[in-house]
Write a structure and sequence with these properties.
By secondary structure, this protein is of the alpha+beta class. It contains 9 helices and 20 strands. It comes from Acetobacter musti.
């Protein structure tokens, strides 16, 4: 949350990073502006630099009697209106797979950070903590699976969402490089806590030509040692047969200064191939023929090679315990099929503004759009759905989706493409004219 500027009542500039670096100043200035902010008109209250439809988004200055302290908080129901990279942004859970979790899995903190409950343990010593398999009570909404733990795939989705990489605007063109994307992921990790520690303590991006990330990986391995698990985030170049039954996994940039070997057990490789079929199909193609990339979050144990006679002394040997893969477009937009990839690329080419709701750990029975156009006259966004199969089970599911969209948005109030029977992507809903409020 460093370098996040807040404007206090009266125009005073305030930095969110002071909460950690200068807590005395943080408390003193919020206390001084507490009454003024409460009495001020909406436009004159404390605020960040985000705007929604031209208007400022105010923040609350709150006082906690139990700790005799002050903090900043987003206004109720306005979290989704903030920019995705703003610490006060809070996604609308009803528009993505977040709705598949029980409320305790993702806990929104008052300062914009989140705490998550993972399905894997991060204890310093011993094996990972077991997952609590206690049966849940009946869900509060029919047909909705409720997950009580977040998997590595859910965590990868959360990092992508918090990094602002699941949305696209025309001005992003040319800026979504792999190092830039992973830099955003690293920053997002500072605002996520799990098991009472920042995820950034254990998150190591692997990016081409990034010496800082490489040094960080070695520093964390030295500090944590082989008795802890680390997260590596990057883009997969290849998964290849290694010695014996194991495989080697190579991340883009891994050979460029990281001095790291990655071993992938055969059982985990086979699970990834079953669970992430689009990613597996993408990696099966020659690199020059790939139209998408495969992002990865790897949960590994790692240690430095210390054998004095080894030519690899000082390198890192890491073993993947479990992993999550996510196929993304060249602009880093996550996609779940080749048809979604085609739509995402067409939207980018048309200079449209849109977001991609992520599935997290939700089951297939949870309905939410494949994309949401954000530049139409509809302020809440224009839902988009891609239909890509014709088997009996899928067609029954399709009928449920169509009924949901027609009921929620009205007939003609949502866009769809039947990619199997209709050649060519249909015209997109028109963008509102520039200057339209």
């Amino acid at each position: 949350m460093s370098d996040t500027i807040i404007i206090l009542p009266g125009g005073e500039r305030f930095r969110l990073e002071w909460r950690q670096s200068d807590p005395e100043r943080w408390e003193r200035r919020l206390k001084a502006k507490y009454d003024e902010s409460r009495k001020a008109a909406r436009a004159d209250k404390a605020r960040c630099l985000c705007r929604h439809r031209g208007a400022v988004l105010p923040l609350q200055i709150r006082y906690r009697a139990d700790s005799d302290s002050y903090h900043l908080a987003v206004w109720p129901h306005e979290g989704p209106l903030h920019e995705k990279t703003c610490p006060f942004f809070k996604p609308d859970p009803g528009k993505s797979g977040r709705a598949g979790y029980v409320s305790s899995v993702i806990r929104e903190e008052e300062d914009g950070d989140v705490s998550v409950t993972l399905s894997i343990g991060l204890r310093r010593k011993g094996p990972p903590q077991p997952v609590d398999e206690t049966p849940l009570p009946a869900p509060d909404r029919p047909g909705r699976t409720r997950q009580r733990r977040m998997s590595p795939l859910g965590l990868l989705n959360l990092l992508w969402e918090r990094a602002g990489l699941a949305e696209w605007k025309p001005q992003f063109a040319g800026h979504r490089t792999m190092p830039a994307a992973l830099g955003r992921v690293a920053s997002a990790g500072t605002r996520i806590r799990t098991q009472k520690r920042p995820l950034s303590d254990l998150l190591c991006p692997v990016a081409p030509d990034h010496e800082g990330f490489a040094r960080r990986l070695h520093a964390i391995v030295r500090a944590e040692g082989k008795e802890n698990h680390l997260f590596l985030a990057g883009f997969v170049d290849a998964i290849e047969q290694g010695r014996g039954n194991d495989f080697t996994l190579t991340l883009t940039g891994q050979r460029n200064g990281y001095r790291c070997f990655l071993t992938l057990p055969a059982a985990e490789r086979n699970r990834l191939a079953r669970s992430h079929r689009l990613a597996a199909a993408t990696l099966a193609l020659p690199e020059a023929e790939r139209q998408a990339r495969v992002a990865a979050l790897l949960y590994v144990t790692a240690q430095h090679i210390t054998k004095p006679d080894s030519r690899w002394k000082g390198w890192i040997q890491a073993e993947v315990r479990t992993a999550a893969l996510m196929t993304v477009s060249p602009e880093m937009i996550p996609v779940e099929s080749s048809y979604e990839l085609a739509v995402a690329e067409a939207l980018v080419a048309a200079d449209r503004t849109f977001e991609k709701p992520l599935r997290f750990d939700a089951g297939e029975d949870l309905v939410f759009p494949d994309f949401i156009l954000q530049d139409t006259v509809r302020s809440a966004g224009y839902p988009m759905e891609v239909f890509g199969r014709t088997d009996e089970a899928y067609m029954a599911r399709r009928a449920e989706k169509e009924d949901y969209y027609n009921t929620t948005f009205g007939a003609g109030g949502w866009w769809s493409w039947d990619a199997i029977t209709r050649t060519g992507i249909p015209a997109f809903p028109p963008a509102r004219n520039r200057g339209t409020p």
